[in-house]
Amino acid sequence: MSTEVRVPTLGESVTEATVATWFKKPGDAVAVDEMLCELETDKVTVEVPSPVAGTLGEIVAAEGETVGVDALLATVSAGGEAAAAPAKPAADAKPAAAPAASGGDAIDVMVPSLGESVTEATVSSWFKKPGDTVAQDEMLCELETDKVSVEVPSPSAGVLSEILVAEGATVEAGGKLAVLSASGAAPAAQPAAEAPASAPASGKDVEDAPSAKKLMAEKGLSSDQVQGSGRDGRVMKEDVMKAVTAASAAPAPAPAPAQTPRAPVSATDAGREERVRMTRLRQTIARRLKDAQNAAAMLTTYNEVDMTGIMELRNEYKTLFEKKHGTKLGFMSFFVKACCHALLEVPDVNAEIDGQDVVYKNYYHIGVAVGTPAGLVVPVVRDADQMSFAEIEKKIAELGKRGRDGKLSMAEMQGGTFTISNGGVYGSLMSSPILNPPQSGILGMHKIQERPMVIGGKIEIRPMMYLALSYDHRIVDGKGAVTFLVRVKEALEDPRRLLMDL
């Protein structure tokens, strides 16, 4: 019986990879989870484990070839010659039992690649339960990381035999989530598979990942200097990177002050409280916002804008706009365009501090804050200065929907140079937005409210909005911040300026 080895899920925005290295050749005996090859994408390196114990058959994708997601890489013949595989330490007891039990049809469901800087995730939901029949690529569970939700598809058709990681538990990148039975029956030898879990306590008999070995050799580290996060303590490439980073950061910063303890709560009140663990996204939001306050010299300047011109223009053309472009004409495209216009004149607001250098960015990737049930996320509209009003509206609508559905990828939330946050949709009249590091500026929009204004010596009722620009005073001077906000105000109050580049 031959089992196909296919390209695993590479991440929501990654569709292809290059075969970098084959660690085995046709005819070699392989164990379950033994690394067969290494794939390289534009973001990360992905190791492909053997789904079964047996003998490597045909290699379909040679080194250097580009392959798509789920493309066939090779075949592994299960059983037969697999029993003659070289004796391995106790950690390999599980693969040896598989051929005798079910012909090697047990297939592991592994945690997919989570992104280059993400090493763990939380299992948020299981869509199937043990004993359920599943089709290939049918979604089994959903993982939640610091940034995005990742759905895990079934690598093969069969029956879900066992769930190894329960909802709410944390799992490492590359960890095992569940076991499938391709033949439709749970493997009889499954209980024996739990034995290796305690084996590493007596000594490290697990072979480290090839990419980790290579990196340890380059960095002059030994495996006992690295804490392995893989199965049975296996050292992965990410673990080596962590050890290198920790070593380079030897002069550790002063420890953060201890968290203020909770005030005493009476027994009566304690019974009426509910304690809910923060989601990983909420923990990340909290950490980044506090980091922004600690690292930047943050200051906020305010102004107000008369929205009459935009509202009249929008009312006049919104029907034609939607008919031609298939999307509604909102306010955000005007604000994005106005900010790009102002950033061209005040480049400090579009820059960032990197050590002792200031990095000026001659591109304009505007982050648009989106409220989701899980928390605030900031997807990025890239090269917004080169986009039309219709393109901006479509992109914001698409990113907003994907954000609310939890489908944004890491790539879609990275690389922004400036952020716009619209608290007005929730009724906020005035606020001071917090920077989105490492950016140096963020614009806060607020509620449109009719107020009496003096226009040409007469009092008129006008739709007004307060604007707030928070900026890093280390790089942006007060003059530059005020100039930026005035240019945004001028462009919004007379939208024709945007068309005339004035």
What's this entry about, in short?
By secondary structure, this protein is α+β, with helices and mostly antiparallel strands. It contains 10 helices and 27 strands.
Descriptive notes:
This is Dihydrolipoyllysine-residue succinyltransferase component of 2-oxoglutarate dehydrogenase complex. Residues 207-244 form the Peripheral subunit-binding (PSBD) domain. Keywords: Acyltransferase, Lipoyl, Transferase, Tricarboxylic acid cycle. Residues 191-210, 246-274 are annotated as: Disordered. Residues 80-103 and 185-204 have low confidence and may be disordered. The protein has 10 helices and 27 strands. Strand 12 and strand 13 (149-153) form a beta hairpin. Among the domains are: 1-102, RNA polymerase II/Efflux pump adaptor protein, barrel-sandwich hybrid domain (OB fold (Dihydrolipoamide Acetyltransferase, E2P)), CATH 2.40.50; 282-500, Chloramphenicol Acetyltransferase. By secondary structure, the protein is α+β, with helices and mostly antiparallel strands. Strands 17, 20, 23, 24, 25, 26 and 27 form a 7-stranded mixed sheet that branches. Strands 1-8-6-3 form a 4-stranded antiparallel sheet, with no helix packed on it. Strands 5-4-2-7 form a 4-stranded antiparallel sheet, with no helix packed on it. 36% of the residues are buried.
